[in-house]
Amino acid sequence: MNPAATPDSPDSGGAANTTHVMTAEERTEYERLRRHAAVRHRRVRQAGASVLLLLALLLAPLAVVAAWVQDTVSDTDRYVETVAPLASEPPVQDVVINRLTDRVVDNVDVKAVTDSLTKALQDAGAPPRVVEGANSLTAPLHNAVRTVVDRTVSRVITSDAFQQAWEGANRRAHAAVVSMLTRDSDGVVRAEGDTVQLDVGEVVDRVRERLVDAGFDKAAAIPDTDRTITLFQTEELGKAKDTMRVLDIVGVWLPVVTVVLAALAVWTAPAHRVMLMITATGVGVMMVVLLVALAVARRVYLDSVPPATLPPDAAAAIYDTFVRFLRASTRTLLVVSVITALAAYLYGPGPPARAVRTTAERGTAAAGRGLRRAGVRTGSTGRWLTDHRAWTTGGVITAGALVLVLWNHPTAGAVALVLGVALAVLIVLAILAAAAGPADRAADRAAP
User: Is the pLDDT reported for residue 279 higher than 70?
Assistant: First the structure.
C-alpha cells in the first residue's frame, strides 16, 4: 500500500480525490526552485534599478542647468536679480566709465578749439610766442577735458541712480522680449509672423487727448487704425519662439522626470536603504562634476575674450554674476545629497551607525531622567511619543522636505537651517518621550 495516497472517499463515487504528500527529495527540489526564482527576481529588480539610477544620474546635471536657464530666461524678476549686481561691480563700472568717457571726449574737437584760439590771437596781433603757446595747448586741453568728463561720468556710474536705471532698463527690455516670444498679441512689443512690431496705441491716445485739451477738437477724429510700427523682420523669429516653448517644457519637466527616475530606482531595488544611499551619493558626485564643468567653462570663457574687448577682471565679474544662482543651486543639491546619504547610512546596521544611534538614545534618556528628577513628567503624551516614534520621526522628516520644496530657490544655508530645526525637534520629542518614565509605562500596561 502506498503511504503517500489515501483511499477514495465513499462519497466520491470512486473519483480520484487524493492528497499527495511530497517526499524529502521533492521538497528539496521545490525549495531549490523557489530560491532560484527568488534570486532571479532579485537580479531583475537590481538590473532595473541600476538602469533607472543611471538615467537619473545622467539627467541630474542637465536638469539643474535647464531649470536655471528656464528660470532666468522666462522670469523677468529672476533675470533682473541676476544682472542687477553688475551695476555695482567695480571692474564693470570701470569699463562703462572708460567707454563713456572715450565716447564723449571723441565728440569734443579740442584741435578745433585750439585752432580758433590761435586764429583769434593772430587776428588780435598777439606776439608770435603767445600764438605758438596756444598751439601747444591741444594736449593739455585734451587731458583736462578727459579729466573733467571722467570725473563726471564716474560720479554718475557709481551713484544709486545708475543702479536704478540699470535695473529699470533691464526689466523693461526683458519683459518686452519675453512678452514678444511667449504671446502674439499682448505687450507693447509683439510678434506677428516674422515681423516684430511696436504698439504705439497708448502713445496715440495720449497725443489725441493732449491735442483735444489744447483746443484742437478735430484731433478727436484721429482713427485707431495703424497703431503699430514694424521694427524689423527676421526669419529667425519663429525659431526663437519655438526655442522658448521647448525651454519652458524642458526646464519644468526635466527635473520632475529626474526625480521620478531616482525615486523609481530606490523603490525597485531590493534593498531600498542601500539604493537610497547610492542614489544620493551619485547625485552628489554629479553635482561636483557640474561645479568642475562650470570652473572649466569659466577658464575657457576668460581665455576667449580679448583683453582689448573686455578686461579680464570685468569678464570674470560678468561670468561669476551670471552663473552664481546656478552654482548656488548645485551646491544646495550637493548638501542635500550628502545629508540624505548620511541619514540613510545612520539608519543601517553598521557599527558606526549603531554607535551613533546608541549615543543619541543614551543622551535623550539621560535628559528625560533629568526632567523626571526635576518633577517634569510628560505622562500619556510621552508614552504616545514612545509608542509612535517611527511616525513622529517620519512626520518631522516629511515636514522638513516639504519646507525645502516650497522654499523659493533654497540655498545651502537654508538646507542647513531646516536640518538644524528638524534635528532639534527630533531631540525634543525624544526627550519628552524619555521623560514619561518606565514606571509610568508599566502602570499604564497594568491598568488594563
Answer: yes
pLDDT for 118 beyond 80: no
Q: What is the CA radius of gyration of the chain?
A: 38
Q: Identify whether the C-beta of residue 334 lies closer than 8 Å to the C-beta of residue 282.
A: no
Residue 57: the pLDDT is 93
187 Cβ neighbours under 8 A, 6+ residues apart? 175, 176, 179, 180, 199
Torsion sign over Cα 161, 162, 164, 169: positive
- And the C-alpha cell for 395? 512626520
Phi, psi of 189 (to 5 degrees): -100, 125
Strand bridging mode 228-233 / 195-199: antiparallel
Contact criterion met (CB below 8 Å) for 437 and 381: no
C-alpha angle 245/406/281, rounded to 5°?
A: 85
Can you tell me the distance from the alpha carbon of 213 to that of 18, in angstroms, rounded to the nearest whole number?
110
Give the whole-number percent of the chain exceeding pLDDT 90.
Answer: 18
- Contacts of residue 327, Cβ cutoff 8 Å, sequence gap at least 6: 291, 294
Lookup: cell for 216: 484742437
Read off the C-alpha cell for 147.
Answer: 579729466
Give the residue, 183 or 363, on which the prediction is more confident.
363
Q: Residue 3: is its pLDDT beyond 50?
A: no
For residue 215, the SS3 value is: coil
Compute the distance between CA of residue 48 and CA of residue 267 in angstroms, rounded to an integer.
10
